[in-house]
């Protein structure tokens, strides 16, 4: 088989380009810092089961992705951002591969499955999550693999028990990655859509494997939670109560907050929207039941997520998986019929892809204006990026002009790949904070005069991650735990200074430095800034 016809291999190569290249280009964000520090404490403090962050219990999220990250740390080193983000990149790749395999399974159409896989790979939040050390991509990757096996249980006579066992384990792994999130946002909508379209035909032949699958899924899912609950009941109860309250009153948004969900697909926003127009597409797609299935799956996921009071844009990640398949039906239709479409149908295609072409064409000029002060530092990458994006823009316009849509679609994928290959290396070289001061500077004071270091009231994950070890927090939620040492270093935010001086009014307080861990120069987040104080308790002789 020629490479151009080996769709799965081509898709894997695209995934490598999208998820693995320049994986260390962007600085560590707050969610990553939490997860990476937790993984490091697994290794350094042997907290593999009773997980901690800054040496405090962190049972909010199950530990499977953290285990995988810790293993990657052991293999490739704790300081390698590539190693830290590698598990997420692998999970992003698996998400795409099984989106392809599922599309192939229910349509038997290789080109459609390949198109859907490419859309999934380059959909903004799937792309972002597969390059970011967060746990969302883990839970949904395990679940889409489980759904693939579950679909085979529904539709194939052979190996039903084998597929049920594997799916049960994978559902359990999904739960061990982020609790019931994917069960609710990806699996349940799948079951609703399958029931509406395919009616669970032949249910009597596979209900026993399903029962087995549920039992296995429950055992795997509950294993860590029950163990931690029985051996650290108090901490689990406190965290559970806190997390339950967050679902009801934290980041509460109106029901319609997710109605713009197509935007999360990024470059495919307009085709994704058209793909949802059932009256328009129902008689144009090659497989109407399959199209209805992906449509129901997408909409059911959005509706179920909308019911939950707490809402964040990243929670829409599971919607993008069925939506990639749904959009694939529209793109496959354009592959077949674009040159024969009337002008009133083409204008949407022209608008979407001419807009992408224009971005490519104007990037060199816009970049010179925007990066003018940093051009000397980034000019090799800027030059290559400009040539690639400009060339892609020209080619998109050319192929649109001669009514050939297939190369337009593939050029759009290359557009994203070019940004990752040549655009991302510019990220660390622009807008860096000239006043950046690492928390590790504190060690220079400790080396000269050994003394403990404390945080006044609360900690910031990025600071803990950068420092390399836990920093004791004096405020325990009810009172301040006063240090036993006569002299110690204390970190406090600017907003905490007044309270800090009141708490230590009987001590000598000397501000000796400032820690500014804001990576970007044009922003100032107080949580990334600390004043460093030397506190000396007064004695009777003072």
TrEMBL record:
It is found in: Cell membrane. The keyword Membrane applies. Its EC number is 2.4.-.-. Residues 61-224 form the Glycosyltransferase RgtA/B/C/D-like domain. It is a multi-pass membrane protein. The chain crosses the membrane at residues 7-30, 82-100, 112-131, 182-198, 210-230, 256-281, 293-309, 315-335, 347-372, 378-400, 407-427. The keyword Oxidoreductase does not apply. It holds the Pfam family PMT_2. Keywords: Cell membrane, Glycosyltransferase, Membrane, Transferase, Transmembrane, Transmembrane helix. One of its GO terms (molecular function) is glycosyltransferase activity. Its main location: membrane. This is Glycosyltransferase family 39 protein.
């Amino acid at each position: 088989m020629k490479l151009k016809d080996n769709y799965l291999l081509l898709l894997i190569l695209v995934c490598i380009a999208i998820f693995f290249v320049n994986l260390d280009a962007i600085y560590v964000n707050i969610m990553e810092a939490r997860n990476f520090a937790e993984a490091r404490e697994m290794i350094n403090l042997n907290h593999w089961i009773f997980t901690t962050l800054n040496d405090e219990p962190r049972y909010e999220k199950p530990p499977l992705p953290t285990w995988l990250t810790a293993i990657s740390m052991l293999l490739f080193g704790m300081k390698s951002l590539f190693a830290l983000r590698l598990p997420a990149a692998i999970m992003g790749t698996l998400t795409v591969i099984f989106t392809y395999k599922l599309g192939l399974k229910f349509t038997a159409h290789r080109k459609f499955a390949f198109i859907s896989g490419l859309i999934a790979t380059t959909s903004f939040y799937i792309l972002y999550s597969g390059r970011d050390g967060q746990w969302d991509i883990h839970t949904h990757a395990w679940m889409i693999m489980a759904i693939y096996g579950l679909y085979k249980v529904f539709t194939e006579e052979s190996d039903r028990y084998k597929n049920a066992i594997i799916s049960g384990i994978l559902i359990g792994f999904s739960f061990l990655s982020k609790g019931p999130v994917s069960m609710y946002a990806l699996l349940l909508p799948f079951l609703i859509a399958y029931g509406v379209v395919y009616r669970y035909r032949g249910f009597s032949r596979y209900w026993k494997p399903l029962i087995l699958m549920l039992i296995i899924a429950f055992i795997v899912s509950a294993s860590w939670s029950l163990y931690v609950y029985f051996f650290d009941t108090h901490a689990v109860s406190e965290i559970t109560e806190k997390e339950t309250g967050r679902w009801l009153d934290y980041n509460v948004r109106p029901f319609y907050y997710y109605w713009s969900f197509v935007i999360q697909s990024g470059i495919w926003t307009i085709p994704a929207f058209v793909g949802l127009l059932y009256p328009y597409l129902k008689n144009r797609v090659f497989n109407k039941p399959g199209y209805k299935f992906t449509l129901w799956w997408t909409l059911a996921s959005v509706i179920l997520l909308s019911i939950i009071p707490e809402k964040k844009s990243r929670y829409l990640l599971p919607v993008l998986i069925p939506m990639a398949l749904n959009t694939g039906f529209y793109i496959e239709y354009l592959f077949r019929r674009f040159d024969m479409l009337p002008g009133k149908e083409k204008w949407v295609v022209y608008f979407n892809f001419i807009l992408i072409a224009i971005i490519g064409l104007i990037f060199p000029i816009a970049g010179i204006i925007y990066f003018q002060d940093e051009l000397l530092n980034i000019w090799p990458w800027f030059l290559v990026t400009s040539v690639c994006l400009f060339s892609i823009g020209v080619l998109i316009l050319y192929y649109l002009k001669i009514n050939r849509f297939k190369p337009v679609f593939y050029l759009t994928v290359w557009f994203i790949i070019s940004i990752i290959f040549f655009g991302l290396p510019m990220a660390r070289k622009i807008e860096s904070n000239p006043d950046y001061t690492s928390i590790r500077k504190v060690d220079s004071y400790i080396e000269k005069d050994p003394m403990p270091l404390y945080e006044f009231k609360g900690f910031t994950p990025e600071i803990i991650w950068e420092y390399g070890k836990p920093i004791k927090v004096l405020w325990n939620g009810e009172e301040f735990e006063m240090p036993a040492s006569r002299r110690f270093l204390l970190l406090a935010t600017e907003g905490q200074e007044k309270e800090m001086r009141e708490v230590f009014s009987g001590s000598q307080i000397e501000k000796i430095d400032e820690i500014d861990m804001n990576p970007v120069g044009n922003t100032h987040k107080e949580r990334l800034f600390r004043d460093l104080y030397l506190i000396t308790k007064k004695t009777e002789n003072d």
